[in-house]
Design brief:
With about 150 residues, this protein is mainly β. It folds into two domains: about 30 residues, no CATH class; about 70 residues, OB fold (Dihydrolipoamide Acetyltransferase, E2P). It is built from one helix and ten strands. The chain is elongated.
Length: about 150
């Protein structure tokens, strides 16, 4: 096994980046070397008394830790925090519209995170039944973006 020298200065810089941006996690990779720095934030617990209907969940219903209903079947969730874009550019047709059939691996949305455009691919083939985000909407990790049935 190759030795792994820990770069304390890099870790401090990444920790500072977390504090400055309000992010909770950042990862740095260089070749085979990966460093992930995370921080926990104090979150007030909120109890939700009324159940949320799974058949028609409101936007953001499946955010982790929100106390809301579980992720509905066929949901495509955000793998990161960022800004969701439903089309390749303003005025262009959306990647995926309600009623359209998509193929597994097809780009259904883009999430911009730290100035990097990350394509969100359909995990399965099917018909888009709901798009739960609007163009240029901020999204959280685990938030339901759309539903494919």
């Amino acid at each position: 096994m190759a030795s792994f020298d820990i770069d304390g200065d890099l870790i401090r810089k990444l920790a500072d980046l977390l504090r400055e941006t309000g992010l909770t996690e950042v990862e740095f990779a260089e070749g085979e070397r990966r460093i992930r720095v995370t921080r926990q934030t104090a979150v007030a617990a909120v109890s939700v008394a009324a159940p949320v209907a799974v058949a028609a969940p409101p936007p953001n219903a499946a955010r982790p830790g929100s106390g809301a209903a579980a992720v509905p079947p066929g949901a495509v969730t955000s793998p990161m925090v960022g800004t969701a874009y439903v089309a390749p550019e303003p005025g262009a047709p959306s990647y995926a519209r309600v009623g359209e059939t998509v193929k597994a691996g097809q780009t259904v949305m883009i999430i911009e995170a730290m100035k990097v455009m990350n394509p969100i691919k359909a995990p399965r083939s099917g018909t888009v039944t709901q798009v739960l985000v609007t163009d240029a909407q901020p999204v959280e990790f685990g938030e339901v973006l759309l539903i494919i049935e």
